[in-house]
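Lecture notes, part 5. Sequence design as translation. It can be helpful to think of inverse folding as translation between two languages: the language of shapes and the language of residues. The source text, in structure tokens, appears below.
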């Protein structure tokens, strides 16, 4: 019985000692800070005093820089895939890769029954119009000599107007294919011309091949002295991008090459899969360093603005929000929520929550978390 009493006494002594030690630790911890409402007070003799560092924040000039991957593409109005308007057999080719073209440059000739049919319709309409014109002139002469009738004149006039309209439609049908109606001869081959100024970058024409009317393009002409770069900018950053903003283009294949461009267009739609917006940058490519399909890095350089930047270590996280500790007076700190606009090396850009002259804990802020 005595042993049991002694054991119980010994156990109580141990528990009392542990409680005393824990109380002393809690008292030491509490002596490091005082929690007064939303304010944390750090006494002069606190162990935390030397662990906290603070900086005064000020607006400073800052040039926002955004980097994104981009893809080189030809400008659609300066890029043409050539497909013949009719099916037929290639009888002659003038093309070679790299050949410079204008809208009048012939690329190849094709013998097509469909084009010959169009020629017949043209010459038929022309002949009928000329006949109607002769009849009209004859009726006008008869009226002038007092032997014609007004009814015959009006009928001739109407017939001429109808045939003239048919002829004009036939002329348009010939000009669509860049054929000259004044130099057209029945049975001639169709000469396919380049629709734009540029150079031949693809040539799949084979002499003697038969091309069907539903065939894909057999040649490509493009003007690549100016090109577009399509970059993808996250929707949260699109507010920094404006038309005519300057950009710097970096090419992995040409690390020593420095190319500049300007924002041509910011798309109005957000890609729902990537949550990004396509931005088109127009670039001078007179040296042809950029090739369609090439990947590049785009550095969007915004105009300098005033911004507050603080060390990254100063920002702490609380669930989905960011916050800092602001020193409101000597040894007094308050937690304040902030909104981050981006990063710049080891600093972050503060969009809201801080003002000029605020003193922010830049190091050791996590020690203050124990007091909250």
């Amino acid at each position: 019985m005595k042993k049991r009493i002694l054991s119980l006494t010994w156990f109580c002594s141990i528990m009392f000692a542990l409680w005393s030690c824990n109380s002393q630790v809690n008292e030491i911890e509490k002596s490091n800070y005082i929690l007064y409402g939303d304010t944390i007070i750090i006494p002069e003799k606190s162990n935390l005093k030397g662990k906290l560092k603070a900086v005064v924040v000020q607006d400073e000039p800052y040039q926002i820089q955004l980097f994104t991957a981009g893809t080189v593409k030809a400008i659609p109005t300066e890029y043409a895939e050539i497909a013949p308007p009719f099916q037929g057999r290639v009888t002659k080719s003038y093309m070679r890769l790299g050949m410079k073209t204008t809208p009048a440059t012939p690329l190849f000739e094709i013998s097509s029954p469909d084009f010959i049919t169009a020629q017949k319709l043209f010459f038929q309409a022309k002949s009928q119009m000329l006949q109607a014109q002769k009849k009209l002139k004859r009726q006008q002469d008869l009226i002038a000599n007092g032997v014609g009738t007004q009814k015959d004149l009006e009928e001739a006039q109407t017939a001429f107007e109808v045939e003239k309209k048919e002829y004009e439609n036939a002329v348009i049908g010939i000009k669509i294919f860049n054929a000259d109606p004044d130099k057209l001869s029945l049975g001639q081959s169709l000469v396919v011309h380049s629709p734009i100024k540029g150079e031949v970058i693809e040539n799949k024409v084979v002499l003697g091949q038969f091309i069907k009317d539903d065939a894909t393009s057999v040649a490509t002409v493009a003007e690549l002295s100016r090109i577009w770069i399509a970059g993808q900018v996250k929707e949260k950053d699109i507010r920094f991008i404006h038309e005519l903003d300057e950009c710097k283009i970096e090419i992995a294949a040409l690390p020593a090459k420095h190319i500049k461009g300007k924002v041509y267009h910011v798309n109005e739609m957000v890609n729902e899969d990537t949550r990004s917006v396509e931005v088109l940058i127009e670039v001078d490519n007179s040296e042809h360093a950029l090739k369609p399909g090439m990947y590049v890095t785009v550095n969007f350089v915004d105009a300098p603005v005033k911004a507050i930047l603080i060390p990254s270590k100063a920002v702490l996280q609380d669930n989905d929000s960011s916050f800092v500790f602001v020193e409101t007076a000597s040894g007094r700190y308050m937690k304040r929520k902030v909104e981050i606009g981006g990063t710049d090396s080891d600093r972050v850009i503060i969009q809201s929550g801080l003002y000029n002259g605020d003193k922010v804990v830049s190091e050791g802020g996590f020690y203050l978390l124990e007091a909250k």
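The translated text above is only one of many valid answers, since several sequences can fold into similar shapes. The longest strand covers residues 254-271.
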